[in-house]
Design brief:
single chain, 227 residues, mainly alpha, 7 helices
């Protein structure tokens, strides 16, 4: 009988402890999330009774990554600059762009001076020929043509007056040599010589003009490329 009373007392005491344990939340143990199939990365930490331990800390970031919150504003300051490791050879596109940026034709001022010096000498003869032609034209326009002059020009009695005068003027212009004027520089003495001087001067002036145009384009290209 005494033994039964002892067992009964033990069961009452165990029941009392179990009830007290259930009533006190501090003594309760939460079931493990891992038993319900959760992954370790999904398990949230239990809040601590210490408020300081519940403060969420901003994780440290590796240099070059975006930081959480306002810390990202300081990211540029904390970036690490990678060292240069290998030489660089321009790609074909950049290489071609660099080459085409050069002037397509190199013209020096000395070439312009040389052409201008030659043109200056030729121009003097050409301009002298202008005076020569003017004097020839005046002479032929005011001349009285004799019968020998008409025969020399190729006129005949069957032609009209206008036809003969055309031959006379042409013959006179091509053959007359005006008397040299004292002090005048040596220049063309006939219409043919004056014509040739004009042709040579025109060709040289065109060459100089072309060279000047090339020089102007070259300078303009440099001005646009040197930026």
């Amino acid at each position: 009988m005494k033994q039964h009373r002892t067992i009964f007392s033990t069961m009452v005491l165990a029941l009392a402890l179990t009830s007290a344990h259930a009533a006190d939340p501090r003594l309760q143990v939460a079931p493990s999330p891992l038993l319900n199939g959760a992954q370790p990365s999904q398990v949230q930490p239990r809040p601590s009774a210490n408020p300081r331990q519940n403060i969420q800390r901003t994780p440290r970031t590796v240099a070059g990554t975006v930081q959480a919150g306002n810390a990202g504003l300081r990211n540029d300051r904390r970036r690490t600059v990678k060292p240069l490791t290998v030489p660089i050879i321009l790609t074909p596109v950049y290489r071609q762009a660099t080459i085409t940026a050069r002037v397509y034709r190199h013209v020096k001022i000395s070439e312009l001076k040389e052409l201008f010096t030659d043109l200056n000498a030729r121009a003097a003869r050409y301009e002298s020929g202008i005076d020569t032609v003017s004097r020839i034209q005046t002479h032929c326009a005011e001349k009285s043509y004799s019968i020998p002059d008409q025969a020399a020009a190729g006129c005949n009695g069957n032609e009209t007056l206008n036809q003969c005068m055309e031959k006379l003027v042409h013959h006179c212009l091509e053959t007359h040599r005006p008397v040299s004027i004292t002090g005048q520089s040596r220049g063309p003495r006939t219409l043919e010589e004056s014509r040739n001087a004009a042709r040579v001067t025109a060709a040289m002036a065109k060459a100089l003009s072309k060279k000047l145009a090339d020089y102007a384009r070259q300078a303009e290209q440099h001005a646009n490329a040197w930026k």
